[in-house]
Amino acid sequence: MKQTIIITECPEKQGWKKNTELCMDVKTFLRSDARMKAGKCYQGVLKRHVRCEDFKYNEYMTFVETSSKTCTKRNPRIFEGEYITITRHSDGSYRPNLRPIHIGPGFCVDSYASSVGNELMWALEGLVEER
After folding, report:
1. SS3 per-residue string spanning the chain
2. Could you tell me the sign of the dihedral formed by the alpha carbons of 35, 40, 46, 51, in that order?
3. Which of 15, 54, 123, 124 is the Cys-Cys partner for 79 at CB 3.0 to 4.6 Å?
4. b/e map of 13-51 (b: 16 or more CB within 10 Å)?
5. How far is it, in rounded angstroms, from Cα 53 to Cα 73?
6. Is this structure's pTM higher than 0.90?
7. Distance from the Cα of residue 125 to its chain's centroid
């Protein structure tokens, strides 16, 4: 059974315990870099090894980076607005998507349509400048 763990910006608020391991040897097996770079995120598995021989503990960790092919997002969002999002597909084409419409008191069709049109214009202007 495969488990997926998603950690947001504040894992302590979600019940995660924060730990700092001091003086640990970490062996890395990386696909993308020869050595780990400071500040770069790597996706993989970190395993802690403990050997006890005659009351002497030898601890070290190994980190194995997972394949980057499974990490790539299929259709990444290149524009995310209040009313629409635009995704890029693998063939290079762009697809605009409407966000859900919340119809309630004070909803005006004309105002909504003009807001969607303006946001689509801003998104397309940004894409044209990007190319």
Report:
1. CCCCCCCCCCHHHHCCCCCCCCCCEEEEECCCCCCCCCCCCCCEEEEEEEEEECCEEEEEEEEEECCHHHCCCCCCEEEECCCEEEEECCCCCEEEEECCCCCCCCCCHHHHHHHHHHHHHHHHHHHHHHC
2. positive
3. 123
4. eeeeeeeeeeeeeeebeeeeeeeeeeeeebebeeeeeee
5. 46
6. no
7. 26
pLDDT band, very low/low/confident/very high, at 97 (cuts 50, 70, 90):
very high
Q: 65, 63, 34, 36: which is closest to 49 by C-alpha?
A: 63
- Rounded Cα distance between 94 and 124, Å, is 10
* Cα–Cα distance for residue pair 18/11, rounded to 1 Å: 8
- pLDDT greater than 50 at residue 3: no
Measured CA angle at 93 (ends 88, 97), to 5 deg: 60
